[in-house]
């Protein structure tokens, strides 16, 4: 009875503040609707002990309860995320442990490799259920806003290759090459010699297979290698969706290594997620805590200001900065739709728990980008101190087709 009274009090305090398409079903058969609108999300609390997750509904606590099966949540992920965020905003203060705290982690080769494999080595077939046919697992580029995902991902790669002014005969290093889409496209379109590196064994195997199938063995090499072990000099270097794994404290070292690998007149493209909090804080209401626990162990986001500072300290000068936040919001929204469309196959491949993790993660990312909690920047840079005459006078070269 005590728990029921607390639930009643909580609902009475929250319901007048929000009009949500939400129904809460309790263990004793009672249910509560939060608006006259037909519920699009149902939260079922199967026992009195599970009620505590509702009373302090942070993104971390409710996400954990859903993933671990302590509560049941039904509905489309996009609706689930909106409802949970509304509950969190109405019930909690965005301060203290629920604020945009900045956490730092110890990074070393072993832990970095384990974190990468935890996230990426689910199975290649798992990622094929929601990515485009080229399996590009990063922000797409919707040049006109009406492209399908496959087209937008090709346009993203071409946008990057245009920004770094890639030319035949050059060499390209792709740090965190994924399943090889960028290096394959670069070799096919420009005839350049490419090296792609990854720490994921699954990505490494499939990327090699795709290079062979494309007949590009003579131009493209895929390595299972840490970026700290790469030797040589490259005319162009790309890093797409990789530096989020480096760690905020290691950004200067990371860009310093890139600087050493870059030819004197070379160009670098760093494409990565950033925090929109100037203090490098995570997404609020415990969202960052959930992602670190279940999705990206040891992942850290820096504000773009700190990224630019770290680049400069690593002896790299930023030439061009472009914000693609809304592009990533749409990308994640499409991934979520694809994920739900293939729910049966995803559950078969990954199991119920991992399905629930990714279900809320993908939709949560779409929401976070949409709300400007996180962002995505493409930054083109080169070695500090280059003579200005070696650089284009305008950005027009990026759009010449």
From TrEMBL:
Statement: the UniProt record of this protein carries the keyword S-adenosyl-L-methionine: yes
Active-site residues, record numbering mapped to chain: 365
Superkingdom of this protein's organism: Bacteria
Domain DUF7884: 17-94
GO biological process: lipid biosynthetic process; methylation
Key words of the record: Lipid metabolism, Methyltransferase, S-adenosyl-L-methionine, Transferase
Segments traversing the membrane: none
A single GO molecular function term of this UniProt record: methyltransferase activity
Similarity field: Belongs to the CFA/CMAS family.
PANTHER family for this protein: CYCLOPROPANE-FATTY-ACYL-PHOSPHOLIPID SYNTHASE
Protein name in the entry: Methyltransferase domain-containing protein
Organism phylogeny: Bacteria, Pseudomonadati, Pseudomonadota, Betaproteobacteria, Burkholderiales
């Amino acid at each position: 009875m005590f728990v029921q009274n607390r639930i009643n009090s909580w609902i009475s305090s929250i319901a007048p503040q929000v009009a949500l398409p939400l129904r809460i079903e309790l263990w004793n058969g009672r249910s509560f609707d939060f608006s006259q609108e037909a519920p699009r999300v149902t939260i079922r609390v199967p026992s009195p002990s599970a009620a505590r997750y509702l009373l302090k509904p942070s993104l971390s606590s409710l996400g954990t309860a859903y993933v671990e099966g302590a509560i049941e949540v039904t509905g489309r992920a996009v609706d689930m995320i909106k409802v949970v965020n509304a509950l969190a905003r109405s019930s909690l203060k965005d301060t203290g442990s629920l604020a945009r705290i900045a956490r730092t982690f110890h990074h070393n080769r072993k832990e970095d490799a384990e974190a990468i494999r935890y996230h990426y080595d689910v199975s290649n077939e798992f990622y094929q259920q929601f990515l485009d046919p080229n399996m590009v697992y990063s922000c797409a580029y919707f040049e006109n806003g009406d492209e399908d995902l496959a087209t937008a991902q090709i346009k993203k790669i071409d946008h990057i290759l245009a920004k770094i002014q890639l030319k035949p005969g050059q060499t390209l290093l792709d740090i965190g090459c994924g399943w090889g889409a960028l290096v394959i496209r670069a070799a096919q379109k420009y005839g350049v010699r490419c090296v792609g590196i990854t720490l994921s064994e699954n990505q490494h195997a499939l990327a090699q297979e795709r290079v062979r199938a494309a007949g590009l063995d003579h131009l493209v090499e895929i390595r299972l290698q840490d970026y700290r072990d790469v030797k040589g000099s490259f005319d162009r270097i790309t890093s797409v969706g990789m530096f989020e794994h480096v760690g905020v404290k290691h950004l200067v070292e990371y860009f310093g290594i890139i600087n050493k690998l870059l030819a004197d007149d070379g160009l670098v493209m760093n494409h990565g997620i950033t925090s929109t909090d100037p203090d490098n804080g995570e997404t609020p209401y415990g969202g960052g805590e959930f992602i670190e626990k279940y999705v990206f162990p040891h992942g850290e986001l820096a504000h773009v200001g700190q990224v630019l500072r770290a680049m400069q300290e690593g002896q790299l000068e930023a030439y061009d900065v472009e914000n693609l936040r809304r592009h990533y919001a749409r990308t994640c929204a499409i991934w979520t739709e694809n994920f739900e469309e293939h729910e049966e196959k995803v559950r078969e491949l990954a199991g119920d728990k991992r399905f629930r993790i990714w279900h809320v993660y993908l939709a949560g990312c779409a929401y976070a980008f949409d709300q400007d909690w996180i962002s995505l920047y493409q930054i083109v840079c080169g070695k500090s101190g280059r003579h200005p005459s070696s650089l284009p006078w305008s950005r027009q070269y990026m759009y010449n087709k």
